[in-house]
Structures are given as C-alpha cells and as structure tokens.
Amino acid sequence: MKSALLVAWRAFCAGLVFSIMAAVLLDRPATAAEAFPFDEELLLDAKPMRGSKRVPMLDIRADGAVLIELWCNSVQGQVVVANDTITVLTGAKTDRTCSPERERGDQEVLSALEQATNWRREGDTLLFIGPQKLRFRRATN
What we know:
Blueprint: H1 2-27, E1 40-44, E2 57-60, E3 65-69, E4 74-82, E5 85-93, H2 100-115, E6 118-122, E7 125-129, E8 134-138
Antiparallel strand pairs: 1-2, 1-8, 2-3, 3-4, 4-5, 6-7, 7-8
C-alpha cells in the first residue's frame, strides 16, 4: 500500500512540476520580435575612423522607424522584424561632403544593413546577420 501511495505522490509531483514549467514557458514572449530592442539607440561595435569620434548609430523607434547615423551621412529607414528575420529598408542619404574613406565606410555599413536577413541578441549586443555581420551595442550615455 505504501508503494502505491508513493507512486501516486510522485506522479502528482511530476504533474505539478510539468504544469509550472508549462505556465512559465507560455508566459515567455511568443516571438523573437518581442525581444528586439525597439526604442533604443545602438552603436556599431567599431573604433572611430581616424580624426573623428563618430561611430555609426541606429536609433530604432517603437514603430520600427530608424535613423541610421553613418560615418558621415545619415539615412531614415524602417526596420521590419518577424521572429529572427529582419529587413532594413532605407531612404536617401543626406548629402554631406565626406572624405572618400568615410563615404566608403557609409556604403559598407548601409549595404550590410540592407542585406541583413536575420538578427540575434547576445546580451546587450544586437547582431545583424547577412553576407556580412554587423554587431551593435546598447548606447550608454
């Protein structure tokens, strides 16, 4: 009789643990889009170019609108996120006079963002994944 009671007790405890785990898992965000860092400023994980303190930055708003500050110019755009996929749509760049090095840097960053197909968070870092990976970190002003 004792062993039947013990078996029933273990089954009850296992069911309780399963129920708690299911409740915790169902309470988590349903999609990766909910974990995307909307309403944040992110800095490219790179050293400034010689003669400047400027580093490319993304200012991502809650609605997905994004201001992309490049090495020299800036671009308005839109970020579309679905689970772990991402699409970065951009408009026209500002027309500032830049050195060829900065102009090339602007084009490389913009191209990598536009070609990104996936994203992943690694702590306070956001990784854009495509033919080239870009790593952005949270701005800590």
